[in-house]
Amino acid sequence: MSQLDGGSPIFVQIADELANQIADGSVGEGERVASSNELAAYYRVNPATAARGLTVLLDEGLVEKRRGVGMFVAPGAREKLVRARRQRFTERYVRPLVVEAARLGIRREELLGIVREEQDSAEVTTGAKA
């Protein structure tokens, strides 16, 4: 888990952090997620705030409550998250990129070449393979 950054409400940051763990597979489907008391202790926040973060995930269908046992990652949660994030990525980044490339007269193959170069550059600097 990472620390909260203060950029958005704490319960949203907690929900986002848990969603990231589901998306990257570090918490798998059917696995138990941290309880509100465990999250509250880790982040040093009020348990009600941590519970509110869990409720966000519950409302989105990413976790399910098992009475007396805790919260668990729901079946299909990772796929649902990845699909939604890919859609958001396309809308926020790819579509504006394509529109701006058209304005600048950058042809499709040239644009793809630019993207490949940037991916290669990112792999060198971050070590992440795209």
How does this model look, in words?
With 130 residues, this protein is mostly helical. It has 5 helices and 2 strands. It has helices spanning 10-23, 36-43, 47-59, 77-103, 108-126; strands at 63-66, 70-73. A two-stranded antiparallel ribbon has the order 1-2. Helix 1 (10-23) packs across helix 3 (47-59) and helix 2 (36-43) packs across helix 3. The chain is elongated. The mean pLDDT is 92.
Which tags fit this structure?
single chain; 130 residues; 2 strands
Number of helices: 5
User: Percent of residues in helical segments?
Assistant: 55-70%
Structural class per helix/strand content? mainly alpha
Gap between N and C termini, in Å? Answer: 23 Å
- Helix and strand run: HHHEEHH
User: Major β-sheet, in short?
Assistant: 2 strands, antiparallel
In short:
With 130 residues, the protein is mainly α. It has helices at residues 10-23, 36-43, 47-59, 77-103, 108-126, and strands spanning 63-66, 70-73.
